[in-house]
Amino acid sequence: MADESVVGSLVSLWRYPVKSMMGEELNSTKVTENGLLGDRAYALVDAETGKIISAKLPRKWGILFDCRAALNLPSQVKITLPDGASIMGDAADINRVLSQTFGREVKLETFAPETPSIEMYTPDIEGLSDSDAETNALIRPNTFFDAATVHLLTTATLNQLQSLTPTSRFETRRFRPNLVIQPAKDATGFVENQWVGKTLAIGNEVRIEITEPCPRCVMTTMPQGELPRDIEILHAAVKHNGGHIGIYANVLQGGTIRRGDAVAIVV
Q1: Which of 24, 152, 222, 226 has its CA 20 to 30 A from that of 66?
Q2: Degrees, nearest 5: CA angle 191-211-216
Q3: What is the signed CA dihedral for 66, 69, 20, 231, rounded to 10 degrees?
Q4: What pTM did the predictor assign?
Q5: Is 11 left (phi over 0), alpha (psi -120 to 50) or beta?
């Protein structure tokens, strides 16, 4: 990489093996055309409606944030439940245990329908469409991803929002990125907005195409662990950055990425 094209370094990597559950931080990972290996490889499906279950409808599925998923093997998921018990995704009674946890019949799936959809709630914030309403939304065909297979965020954006709204906690986990990048040369502000439409090289192998800013939803405001519910998180995104935090990308070339890898714009 030419030094002048380097825009930052990769400081953390995350994957979320089960859609809308807490995920796991990684030191390195393979990247395929479907994003980070194992990311959103599974999802829960509402047996009654057939819809993909998402924490975007907190009153119904907020308990997802009390569950954690990790890949125990390349093709096997381990789910930790709210009471601290854990169960493997291939357990014979997995759907019974999950249904008991969620209080309604659900199924753990690995194959997405051709036209998957979710239910979602949009908070009552001026500037958001469908404000204070529950709606149905189509997500990326044949996958459990909402819109793109990779989500990036810079530490500069988190710092910018923190300075603008000091009473809130703008922590990485609220935004569920795959890749967190520390910008070069102490760049400040919403740095990644400038990368939309460009191709980034991560390490020596991976190339991704930045497609659009990432619109934020109610999930950023939800409590998780000791982080409290905070509607001001989303309000700040709307007020200061058009409702966006981070950017979406598609994979052009797979490979392996590692914490500390340089991130550069491909010229």
Answers
A1: 152
A2: 65
A3: 40
A4: 0.95
A5: alpha
pLDDT level of residue 45 (50, 70, 90 thresholds): very high
pLDDT digits (tens, 9 = 90+) for 224-256: 999 999 999 999 999 999 999 999 999 999 999
Asked which of 65-79, 96-110, 252-266 is least confident by mean pLDDT, the reply is 65-79
134-146 burial string, b = 16+ CB within 10 Å, else e? eeebebeeebbbb
CA dist 121 and 114 (Å) reads 23
The answer to whether the CB of 190 falls within 8 A of the CB of 253 is: no
Q: Are 32 and 203 in contact (CB under 8 A)?
A: no
Is the pLDDT score of 186 beyond 90?
no
Could you tell me where the beta strands, DSSP code E, fall in 17-85? 24-26, 28-32, 35-36, 43-46, 68-73, 76-80
Q: What phi and psi values does residue 230 have, to the nearest 5 degrees?
A: -155, 100
